[in-house]
Amino acid sequence: MLRRTLLKSLAASAALPLVLRHGTAFAAAPDVLDVAIVSDPVTLDPALMASFFELSVQYNLHEPLLHVTPDLAIEPGLAELSAPDDTTYVLTLKDGLTFHDGTAIDAEAVKANFDRMLDPATGSPRRSELGPIASVEASGPLEVTIKLSAPYAPFAGVLANRAGMMVSPKAVADLGADFATKAVGSGPYKLVSWNKNSELVLEAFDGYWRGKPAIGRVVFHPISDETVRMTNLRSGTVQLADGVAPQLVSQVEQASDLTMKQRPGLGFNAFSFNNTRAPFDKAAVRQAFVTAVGPQVIQRAVYFGTGSVSNGPVPPSIAWAYDETLDPARGDAEKAKSILSEAGISDPVEVSVTVTNSPLQVRTAEIIQAQAGQAGFKVSINQIDPTSLITVLRQKDFDLCMSPWSGRSDPDGNMFNYFTKDGPNNFAGYQSDAVDGLLKKARTTLDQDERATLYKQAQETIAEDAPMLFLTFPSTLQASVAKLDWMQWPDGALRLQFAKFS
Amino acid sequence: MGKFLLSRLLSLVPILFGTSLVAFFLIRLIPGDPVIALLGLEANDDAIAALRSSLALDRSLPVQYLAWLGNVLTGDFGRSIQGGRQVFPLILGALGPTALLAVAALVISLLIAIPAGIVAATRRDTVADYGASFAALCGLSMPSFWLGVLLILAFSIYVPILPASGYVSPLVDPLRFLSFLVLPALTLGTALSAATMRMTRATMLEVLRADFIRTARAKGVPWRRVVWRHAFRNAQIPIVTLIGIQMGQLLGGVVITETVFSWPGIGKLTVDAIFARDYPVVQGAVLVTAVLFVFINLLTDVVYTLIDPRVGLQ
C-alpha cells in the first residue's frame, strides 16, 4: 500500500516540471505585478510606521494630502494647500472622494486623522513631524483650517509624506488593534490579504482620485536576502525589486531583459562622534578623524561607486539647500596628524567604532580603522545587532557609532533632529548655539532663498565643528523587468499608480 | 499504554512551566528594547513612553510574567509588539508551512538515505559504498544556503522550470504550492539524508554480522529477503530515533532555508521576533515548539513498539 502511494507520488512529481513549463504556475498574468521588497512591513498604519522599508507599501495603500514629484516639487493630492498667513494653513479637499471602505474623505475625517496623530496616547512618531500645531478645525464640509503657534516651513513637505497619509476614521474605530494589519486608506490600491513573511496582496481601487491604476493587482513579497531578491527578478518570479545591492548593480545593468534605475537619495551614511566624552569631546580630535577618513575609498569599495561622497547632512538631491562649496581635505593622513600635533596630542588616540554586524557596515568600519590608523588613531571595531543600535546611540554608549538616516525631502528633516541641542537624533550630543539658532530660524522662515542661506551657514559650522563623520549620500537602487514602465522617487517609495506593463 | 500516555502528558506540565520561565526571562536578558526596536530612528521620548505604557512594559517583570502566564492559561497568547497581530494565529500560520516543508524534506531524505545506506552496507568496501559515503560527506558538509542558491540558479534561471522562492497555501493552489516546495525540500532533504544514510549503513553492518542473519542465510533464505525482512527491520530503531530528532529540529524551524526560499515558517518568525525583541511572539513560539518536541518524542516511542514487539511502554 505504502509502496503504491510512494510510486504514485513519484510519478506525480516527475510530471510536475512538465506541467509547470506549460502552465502559468509562476509567470505573472500581465495584470499582476510581483514586487520584491526588503522586509515585511511591521504595520500598515501610517500613524505608527517607523521602518524605512515600509514606505512602498504605505504609499500604495495610503494617499497623502499633498503629492511630491520625483523632483521634490509639491503638488495638490487629496487636497490643495493655501496659506492665508504665516501660521495658518487651509486644506481644501477634492469633492466626492472616499476611503477604500466607502467612508467620505471630508473635513471631519481629516480632522480625526490629525487628532489621532497628535494625541500623545497614540504614541505616533508623526506628532513631532507635524510641528507646532495649535488647532485643527473643520471650517467647512471639505475645508480644514490648521493654526500653528509659530511659522513652520517644512509643513507642506510633511503633509506630502507619512503624516499626510489619511486613513478611514471609521475603520480605525471598528478595527481597533487589528487596524495595523487591515488598514483602510485612500491610496491607489486597497488591501486584499496579508500573510506574514509571505505575501501582501493589493488590488486597484476604483475610487482613486487619479483614476483606477493601470495594473490591477500588486503582490509584495518580503525577501530579505539581496541575492535571493535578484535571482527572483532574473527568473521572472518578481518583476520589480527594491534594494538592489550596490555590488550587483553592474550585473543588472548588463542584463538586456532588466532595467536598473538609480537616483540620488535623500539620506546620508554617517557616523556620530560622541561629543560628550573623551577623546571626541575635543573638536580637534574629531576634525583630525574626519580629515583622516577618505569617503571616496568607502564609496568605491563599499558602495561600488553608487551614490556620492558626503561632507554634510544635505544631499545634492535637495538642490536648493545643498552646499556644494563644502570641500574639506579628506583621506589626508598627514594633515590629520598635524591637526593632532597642533592640539598637543602625540600619543596614539584609542577609539572604538560601533557598527551593526552587516557585511557592508563591517567593511566600512574596517576602512575607517585602516585610514584613521595611518593618522595616529588606534581604532577597534565593536559589532552589535541592529536592534541594539538605537539603544546604544540613545544612551551615548560609544565613541563613534554609525547613524544613517533615510532622509526627508525638506532639509529640516535631515538637520533639525540631528543638530539642534535637544534634537531626538542628536546622538552626538552636539551643543552649538549657532547651529541651534540657525536651524530654529530656518524652520520658522518661509522664504526659500533665506532658508537656503541659513541651512548653508549651518552646514558650514557643522563642517568646522565636525560632530559627525559624513561618508556618502546613498542612491536609491531599484530594478525591474524591461517591459515594466515605472517611475523612481528619491525616497525609494514605489508609487505603483504610475506603473504599467508596456 | 494508557498509563504511559498519561504520564507523558503529565510530564508536559513541569516542562512547559520551566520553558515559560526560561523563554520569558531569557529574551529580556538580551540588551535592546522592543519599543525602541519598533520606533527605530523615529523614537522620541514621548512616543517611547506612550508605547511602553500601552504595551504594559512599564510594569515590573514578575507582574508582567504572571499576567502573561494567566492569559496563556486561558488560551490568550497576547499580541505581537511588531504590528499587533494575535500571537497564536501568527504561530499557527507559520507552523503550517514549516510542517509541510519538514514532512517533504524527511520523505526526500528517506528516499535517498535508506536505499543508499543499505547498498553501502551490503556492498561494503565496494565502489557503491565509497560512492555513497562520499556523497553523504558532501551532503553533510554543504551549507544549505549554498546548495539552496545553487538549486535556484539551476532550476529557476538556467533551466527555468521552478519559481526561485515564495509560498502559497496548498489549499489555495496545490500545484503552485508543489512548485514552491520542490527546491527547499530538496535542499533540506539532501542535508538530512547524509546523516540518515550514515546511520543506516552503520546499524545495517552491525545487524548483518549477527548470528540470526547467518542462520537465515544457512537456511537458504534469499539474500534480498534477508536484507529487507531480517536485517533492515532490526536496524530500524536507531534510524527512527534519528528521524524523530530530525523532525523535532525541523519543526523548530530551519531559518536559513526559510530565508533563502522566502518560506514563511516558524524559524524565520522566531528569529525575526528575537531580533526585534518582540517578547510575546518569542515566548509563544518557544512554548509551542516545546509542546511539539514532547509530542514527537512520544510518537517516536510509540513507533518503537510497532517496529519491535519486544519493546513495551511503561
From TrEMBL, chain A:
Organism for this UniProt entry: Jiella endophytica
One matching Pfam family: SBP_bac_5
Cleavable signal peptide: 1-27
Key word Signal present: yes
GO cellular component: ATP-binding cassette (ABC) transporter complex; outer membrane-bounded periplasmic space
Sorted UniProt keywords: Signal
Source organism superkingdom: Bacteria
Annotated family: Belongs to the bacterial solute-binding protein 5 family.
Single GO molecular function: peptide transmembrane transporter activity
Domain (Solute-binding protein family): residue spans on this chain: 74-425
InterPro entries per the UniProt record, alphabetical: Peptide/Ni-bd, SBP_5, SBP_5_dom
Protein name in UniProt: Solute-binding protein family 5 domain-containing protein
Keyword Transcription regulation attributed: no
